[in-house]
Structures are given as C-alpha cells and as structure tokens.
C-alpha cells in the first residue's frame, strides 16, 4: 500500500522530533558531565586549599615549637637564676658574672631603680618583661630576676686558704644531708655574717645551691666559699689531717654546746632536718655536743641549730 503524502510528512516530523530529543538528551548529558567535572575540580581545589592551610599551620607550629625549644635551651644553658631585690643587688655589688637581668614592666619603686642604675653602669643586658614571665622563672621574685652561670663551687683547699689569708684559725661548717633549700639558704646567711671561712656539702642527699637557696641567703652565697664533695667522710678525714677538730651536733650527746671549747681550728657538723648526722659521720666526729631542750618539742630546725652553735663559737673565739 502506497504511503500518502500526509503520512510521509508526519513520519518525517516524528523522526526529526526524535532526533532533536536525542540531541537535547546528549546535550543535557554533556552539561551534566561538565558540571560533575567542574564540581570535582572545585572539590579538589577546596581539598588542596584545606591541605595547604593545614600544612601551613603545621609549619607555623613547628617554627613556634623550634623557637620555644631555642628559648628553653637558652635559659637551660645558664642553668641558674638569682631572684629578689636584695639578692640581685648583692650580686651586682660583688662584680660576679651576670648574663642577663629581667625586670618587671611598669612603674618602678624603691631599690629596683638602684638595680637598674647599677646594671646600666655595668653595661649588662637589661630586659623589661611582663610579670607572668618572671612568675614562670621564679617565686617571690619581687620584680627582678638575674640569669647567671651555674654556681661556682670551690675546693676544700680554697676554704682553708681564706682562713690563712685572714690569719685566723680555720672555721668551717660541714652539712650532712640538708635537703631543704630554705634551711641551706638560712645556714649560709648565718655563716657568712659570723665569719665562717667556708661550707662543705655532699653531692648526694643534700640540696645544691639553687635560686631558692640564693634568695633565702639574701645574696650571702655571693661571698661564701662552698665546696661540694663526693664523700663527706673522706672529707672529714682530710680536714682532720689539716689539723681541724670535728665537732658534731647530736641530740643525745652528753656535752652541751656552751660547755665545749670551740676555739682553735674546727669544723662544726650539722646533720639533716629529720635524722641528724649519718652513723658513719657521727663515728668520724671527734666530739659530739648537744643543744638542751626544755620544752615538749625535742628538736630544732637545722638552720636554728647551726646558728646557735656557730655564734657560741664566735663568742668563744672573740
């Protein structure tokens, strides 16, 4: 059957419409593919940007951490500090090495102005900082902290040489197991004011000279000869060979301190706060003396005991 002109025309229109629809679908698919590709690119760019930001942040943290480590290394390299106005002032007067002085930022009153003036005269590095930095460095700093090299311990011979230079009989203090820095600081302060030629401490079971000791001593560590030894008993034997009498303090001793002759070359031994002198040190002492106790409390603070006996010796020695 022959196709009519109208049917032919309708068929051509339908084919054309189907072609257009297919073309439109292809275009839509292409646009959707392009949109997906663009979305992926945008997402990748966003991820790259985020990753870059994270990497930048990590690098900043690393740089900050490195700076912190360098600052810590710098402070650690000095190893010691002197805090408090009196202690720093005495340090400046002594002329000893000072690496840097930190003062609290803000209005200045009293002796802090003298510290600043002396620091400038000595051409020292003077840095103004916030109170929080000083709080981190030391307690009770009174607005000033000096960073100094590690404490310079001396030899036993240096202590005996001081006595020789003063043309006096050696007057030495031996500390056996003083673990409280406040006690050590107080003992050093008392010994310096009493004219003791030097103090000997063991490396073990005894606090070293640190910032707390220096502050409590109010700068007396600047002037006092202090030796730090490996073996306190060997040191006692060495002092005996140099002609010193070893006087140990013991609560059970029969001889009371004011009845003992404390003139001539001598070393007074002060034991630890809790248990006193160790057994071997007590055995190596030439004489044991006690401080009488009249009350219910049967012991004294180590620094108080030291002060009582030291000034009895001062009185007797004239």
Mean pLDDT, to the nearest integer, reads 83
Reported by name, the CATH topology of the largest domain is Alpha/beta knot
Shape: elongated
**Going by CATH, what is the homologous superfamily of the largest domain?**
SPOUT methyltransferase, trefoil knot domain
The percent range for helix content is 40-55%
Short description:
With 318 residues, the chain is of the alpha/beta class. It has helices at 5-78, 85-94, 111-121, 131-137, 156-166, 181-194, 211-216, 232-241, 279-284, 302-317, and strands spanning 80-83, 100-104, 126-129, 144-148, 171-176, 198-202, 226-229, 245-249, 255-256, 266-271, 287-290.
Written description of the protein model:
The protein is of the alpha/beta class and 318 residues long. It has two domains: 80-148, 2-Layer Sandwich (60s Ribosomal Protein L30, Chain: A), CATH 3.30.1330; 156-317, 3-Layer(aba) Sandwich (Alpha/beta knot). 52% of the residues lie in helices and 16% in strands. It contains ten helices and eleven strands. It has helices spanning 5-78, 85-94, 111-121, 131-137, 156-166, 181-194, 211-216, 232-241, 279-284, 302-317; strands at residues 80-83, 100-104, 126-129, 144-148, 171-176, 198-202, 226-229, 245-249, 255-256, 266-271, 287-290. It has a seven-stranded parallel sheet, sandwiched between helices. Strands 1-4-2-3 form a four-stranded mixed sheet. α2 packs parallel to α3 (111-121) and α6 (181-194) packs parallel to α10 (302-317). The protein is elongated. It starts with a helix and ends with a helix.
């Amino acid at each position: 059957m022959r196709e009519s002109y109208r049917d032919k025309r309708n068929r051509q229109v339908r084919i054309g419409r189907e072609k257009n629809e297919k073309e439109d679908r292809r275009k839509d698919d292409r646009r959707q593919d392009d949109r997906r590709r663009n979305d992926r690119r945008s997402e990748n760019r966003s991820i790259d940007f985020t990753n870059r930001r994270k990497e930048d942040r990590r690098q900043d943290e690393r740089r900050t951490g490195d700076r912190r480590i360098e600052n810590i290394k710098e402070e650690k390299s000095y190893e010691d500090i002197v805090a408090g106005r009196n202690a720093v002032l005495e340090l400046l007067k002594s002329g000893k090495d000072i690496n840097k002085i930190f003062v609290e930022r803000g209005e200045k009153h009293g002796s802090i102005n003298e510290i600043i003036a002396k620091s400038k005269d000595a051409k020292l590095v003077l840095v103004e900082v916030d109170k929080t930095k000083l709080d981190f460095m030391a307690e009770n700093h009174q607005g000033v902290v000096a960073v100094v090299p590690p404490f310079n311990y001396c030899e036993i011979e240096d202590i005996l040489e001081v006595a020789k230079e003063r043309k006096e009989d050696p007057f030495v203090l031996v500390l056996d197991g003083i673990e409280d820095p406040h006690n050590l600081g107080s003992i050093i302060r008392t010994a310096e004011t009493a004219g003791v030629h030097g103090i000997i401490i063991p490396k073990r079971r005894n606090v070293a000279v640190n910032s707390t000791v220096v502050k409590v001593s109010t700068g007396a560590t600047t002037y006092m000869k202090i030796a730090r030894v490996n073996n306190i008993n060997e040191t006692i034997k060495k002092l005996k060979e140099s002609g010193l009498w070893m006087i140990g303090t013991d609560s059970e001793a029969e001889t009371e301190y004011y009845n003992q002759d404390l003139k001539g070359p001598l070393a007074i031994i002060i034991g630890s706060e809790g248990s006193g002198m160790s057994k071997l040190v007590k055995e190596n002492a030439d004489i044991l003396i006690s401080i009488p106790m009249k009350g219910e409390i049967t012991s004294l603070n180590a620094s108080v005991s030291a002060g009582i006996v030291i000034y009895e010796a001062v009185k007797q020695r004239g």
